[in-house]
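Module 6 notes. Inverse folding takes a fixed backbone as the condition and produces residue identities as the prediction. Think of it as a translation problem where the source language is geometry and the target language is the twenty amino acids. Below is one complete input and output pair. Work through it position by position during the lab.
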């Protein structure tokens, strides 16, 4: 009798439990799409705040780290303020879209970078983003990624001599040079020079291995060459070609040594008025050489830069660097994230250039962001008020 009663109770309880479970499942909202395919725009994805708000309602259906799409980021080095910031911005944006992200820094060694990318391929990453140390040294490993069906995106530095690269995302590098040239001409007052007067200039350009460096040089010289031709600019070393002015590995120390040699060999009897420096790092080298040579506020030259690193911003405030080309890497990271989405999902990425970036194998579809000039007058508004750096970050930069 007891057994029969127990069985009856169990039979009554089981349907109730099943109904309870169904009611619980039906209350869960279906997962919303993480990616909008309409225009591959970063601002059309779920924000990190939305992800945090949903964290309390995640279910077992949420992908584990092992199940997420894996995005690999290969950066040139970790010592410059620029590349760790780029990597952090991309990692944040990609993780907000539920990707798993791995970052490796090659510390400016092409062989290390090649080995790190080979590891990404072996680990079956779903997409590899590469900011190359040496744009021409990654042909073999890029081909390995292509053979493995892994899309490759060149980030800020075009990968050369390979058809394995799917997209290129960067700032308009020739436009960067053009803006730099215009700012140099304005700061040096070249249009206002009286008849017969001139300004002296020396050039400190980027690595010959970096296609972007040559594009920047081309844009710069489009602006400055007419002044050299009519004598309003004088380069006493006569080193004005890209090959003669490029500095291997964008090395700050090599820029310092070259500037020291110029000052000792050509500017003992006449002051150097302009250092046309292609990056903040090269500008630091020039600044150190000029300080050692005894230049002061009274005869300090115009010095250009690129990247608006925190130290460069500090130097601009203090007057030892005249300006830097601001390239908001948050925008670049967002754009790269949208292109990663397209590459991983097999949809069409939004691009705005199909002509400039020939890597000797193909013209790489590209998206180019626009740079801006930052000087002492607008640094507060653009950099600090714009949230790129805090005043304390600039003050403590070394």
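Target side of the pair, the amino acids:
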């Amino acid at each position: 009798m007891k057994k029969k009663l127990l069985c009856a109770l169990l039979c009554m309880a089981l349907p109730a439990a099943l109904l309870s479970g169904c009611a619980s499942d039906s209350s869960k909202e279906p997962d919303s799409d993480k990616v909008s395919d309409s225009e591959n725009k970063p601002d059309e994805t779920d924000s990190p705040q939305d992800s945090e708000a949903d964290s309390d309602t995640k279910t077992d259906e949420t992908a584990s780290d092992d199940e997420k799409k894996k995005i690999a980021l290969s950066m040139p080095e970790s010592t410059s303020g620029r590349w760790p910031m780029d990597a952090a911005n991309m990692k944040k944006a990609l993780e907000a879209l539920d990707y798993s992200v791995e970052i490796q820094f090659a510390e400016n060694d092409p062989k290390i970078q090649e080995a790190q990318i080979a590891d990404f391929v072996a680990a079956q990453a779903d997409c590899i983003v590469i900011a190359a140390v040496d744009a021409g040294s990654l042909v073999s490993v890029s081909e390995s990624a292509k053979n493995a069906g892994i899309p490759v995106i060149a980030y800020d530095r075009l990968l050369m001599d390979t058809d394995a690269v799917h997209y290129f995302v960067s700032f308009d590098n020739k436009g960067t040079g053009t803006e730099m040239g215009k700012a140099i001409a304005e700061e040096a007052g070249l249009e206002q020079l009286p008849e017969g007067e001139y300004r002296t200039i020396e050039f400190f350009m980027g690595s010959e291995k970096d296609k972007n460096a040559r594009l920047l040089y081309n844009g710069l010289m489009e602006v400055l060459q007419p002044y050299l031709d009519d004598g309003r600019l004088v380069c006493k070393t006569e080193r004005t070609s890209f090959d003669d002015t490029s500095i291997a590995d964008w090395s700050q120390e090599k820029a310092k040594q070259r500037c020291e040699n110029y000052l000792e060999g050509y500017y003992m009897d006449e002051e150097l008025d302009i250092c046309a420096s292609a990056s903040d790092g090269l500008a630091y080298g020039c600044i150190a050489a000029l300080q050692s040579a005894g230049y002061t506020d009274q005869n300090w030259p115009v010095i250009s830069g690129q990247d608006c690193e925190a130290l460069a911003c500090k130097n601009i405030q203090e007057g030892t660097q005249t300006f830097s080309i601001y390239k908001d890497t948050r925008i670049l990271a967002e754009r790269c994230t949208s292109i990663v989405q397209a590459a991983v999902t097999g949809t069409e990425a939004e691009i705005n250039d199909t002509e400039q970036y020939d890597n000797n194998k193909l013209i790489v579809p590209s998206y180019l962001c626009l740079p801006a000039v930052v000087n002492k007058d607008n640094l507060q508004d653009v950099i600090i008020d714009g949230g790129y750096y805090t005043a304390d970050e600039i003050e403590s930069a070394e």
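Reference fact for the lab report: The longest strand covers residues 165-171.
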